[in-house]
Amino acid sequence: MNARMNRQGFIALTGATSLAAFLAACGGSSSGDSDAGSSAAAGSGDTSAAAPVGFDPATEPDAPLLVFTWSGYDESPVPDGAPWMWQEYTDGPYGAKSPLKFTFLDDDTQALAKVASGFAADIIHPCGGYIQKWKEAGLIQPLDVALLPDWDGVPESLKAPGLIDGAYYHLPFDVGFTSLTYDADAVDFSKVGGEESWKILLDDRYKGQISLFNGPDEIIEYAALANRGAKDPTELTIEEIAAAKETALLMKQNVRNYWTSQNDTVNDFVNGNILITATWPDGYWKIKTHPKMKDRNIQYMQPIEGRLTWICGLVLSAASKQPGRAMLAMAAANTPAAGAAVTDNYQYASGQKAGVSELITNKELITAFGLDDPALWEPPMAWPQKAVEPYKEFIAAGQEVINA
Amino acid sequence: MRALVVTLVAVVVMAGSAVAVAQRADTSASTRARIITALTTATSPDDCGCTAATRAKDRIANRATAEASTNTKIVP
């Protein structure tokens, strides 16, 4: 119950934050930021064109570029920030004329509301499930991929969530799997077909020793994969959502808790409280390399139904007055060097795949996360995160499971 | 329960504010409709949109833990 109330409190706080942004914008401010945001909204009707745009960085005004990103991805020195992500831009011809300035997102919803209310960011860092909403709100514009020299190194499967009406709106940067980390010395799949499968969540031998992420969409996706096999779990019929909800409720009987911090579930695992938990790649790595686990066989499940893939990356504001220079900053984040650094520093994968493995310092991470096997990132081995459909029914079903 | 009520009220007010923002921006009716739709669906109280936010919070926590373990701020 506490977890539920905390979650709702968090959501309420998020709503309040967004509300504050709206009220600030509605207060009649005539600041430049608000005007820029209005331009974004006003220009939104023009952003659906699929034709590539030809930005010219040389003719754009000298002014800071505002990057609206997640904590850890600014230019602060390592380990607080990620200067390696932006270095090529900063060292380039516009790094001094249009220096990067950073503001941090609190969450995807807050970010969307803040930009819609007039916050004049040039580059924003949303994740796969939200790209369509940014597009629908008219707040982003197509990328000029001609200004991305390493664009071809990004697999089509990762570009897919950002391909809307024939134009690319999203440069995948930090990506990763969601799957189950488990102790193979204690967990076997003999009762669910003998192969790694999401159905292990239904095996009551592990009752009370399973933890899952507190995300309503993901809870339904796990169950849908168990029910339907290797099919896209983000697109379900109403009947399939109902069936997945029933399966998720059965899974819940074995679940110890739905975690809201991966650090917490890592601690639960290494302290022997759970044997199976849903994690991102870095969570798996923290468990596998923890001193308490040195004698355990820790595995990251590659289920027969496929893993889930989350895809975060960069979009270009429709209001940007320096879209060409913003594209050059994005190009810096898309280099193989930046891609290797996101793996070494955060144990995530990068959207960039070409030439990255050679640059990764910790070679163990390459095989651990399948960075040398592109097939692992493609359906049916992995299903890219995108906006779930039908949205309301999907989210409601997952929330009902969490609250049950 | 109180948190849920607060959330619902916030969403309703936000939707109203979205209308005001769109009107002030002097946008077309269709554009206003798109903004309002995107905002109201994205701010459903049942959708925390928190996957990436959770990762960001974990990164901050991990830095704090690392700094505390050395009892000093990490200098690169």
Walkthrough of the structure:
The complex is a heterodimer of chains A (404) and B (76). In chain A, 37% of the residues lie in helices and 16% in strands. With 404 residues, chain A is of the alpha/beta class. Chain A has two domains: 206 residues, 3-Layer(aba) Sandwich (D-Maltodextrin-Binding Protein, domain 2), CATH 3.40.190.10; 150 residues, 3-Layer(aba) Sandwich (D-Maltodextrin-Binding Protein, domain 2), CATH 3.40.190. In chain A, strands 1, 2, 3, 4, 7, 8, 9, 10, 11, 12, 13 and 14 form a twelve-stranded mixed β-sheet that branches. In chain A, strands 5-6 form a two-stranded antiparallel sheet. In chain A, strand 5 and strand 6 form a beta hairpin. In chain A, helix 3 crosses helix 11, helix 7 crosses helix 8 and helix 9 runs parallel beside helix 10. The N terminus of chain A is likely disordered. With 76 residues, chain B is mostly helical. Chain B has one domain. Helix content of chain B is 75%, strand content 0%. Chain B has three helices and no strands. In chain B, helix 1 runs antiparallel to helix 2. The radius of gyration of chain B is 19 Å and the shape is rod-shaped. Chain B starts with a helix and ends in a 6-residue tail after the last helix. About 8% of the residues of chain B have low confidence. Chains A and B meet through helix 1, helix 2, helix 4, helix 5 and helix 7 of A and helix 1, helix 2 and helix 3 of B.
Highlighted features:
heterodimer; A: 404 residues; alpha/beta; D-Maltodextrin-Binding Protein, domain 2; twelve-stranded mixed β-sheet; two-stranded antiparallel ribbon; 14 strands; 16% strand; globular; disordered N terminus; B: 76 residues; mainly alpha; rod-shaped
